[in-house]
Amino acid sequence: LYVELGLHTDSSKVQDKNGQRANLMRTMREVWEQPRVWAVVQRMAAEGDATLGDFAETLVKEAIFLLNDALGRLTDVHTRQEEMTDAEAWAKQPARERLKREAFLDSLKRTASGFLHLAKASLAALLRLTADLTVCAAFAQTPSRASKLAAMLTEFLRRLCGPEAQALKVANPQKLGWDPKAMLSNTGRLL
Predict the structure, then answer these.
(1) How many Cβ atoms are within 10 Å of 153's Cβ, its own excluded?
(2) In Å, how far are 44, 93, 121, 131, 155 from 160, measured between CA atoms?
(3) Residue 13: pLDDT band by 50, 70, 90 thresholds?
(4) End-to-end distance of the chain based on CA atoms, in angstroms?
């Protein structure tokens, strides 16, 4: 089902793909806590089950998309907040323009928060699955899957630690659900 949700792009068929995936992921993580269910997941991984492999690949793709979008939105929030720090230039703008820009910033914050929430859910699922060596193998069964995961890790470590990290600094990050140290730590744990 998680994979199938990703195949639908027709908004009349799937109103909120990401929201549905987040709910499904929350349910799956709870179900995985049941020893009998986890034993089935381990068996599927050990047998090289294609369904688990497809799920692993979809989960990595989803994490890449969500983390990219979340970090991009944080950069946008940072840029807008920086524009507002020049009080003199800000005050010179017409009141209507300021209100419009403030509303846009609020919209960016909501979007960034939503993508961060979903990205953290995907990352938590990846951490849960890769913590088990047998299940972790599902992520590396094919070279393309392994290279996607490696590329994702490399890119996000670079973005979280490199010069671009300055653009991810926003006012009141906790209100957006942004904890860069935790994101860096969790990304590093996947190594």
Answers:
(1) 17
(2) 34, 34, 18, 22, 9
(3) low
(4) 28
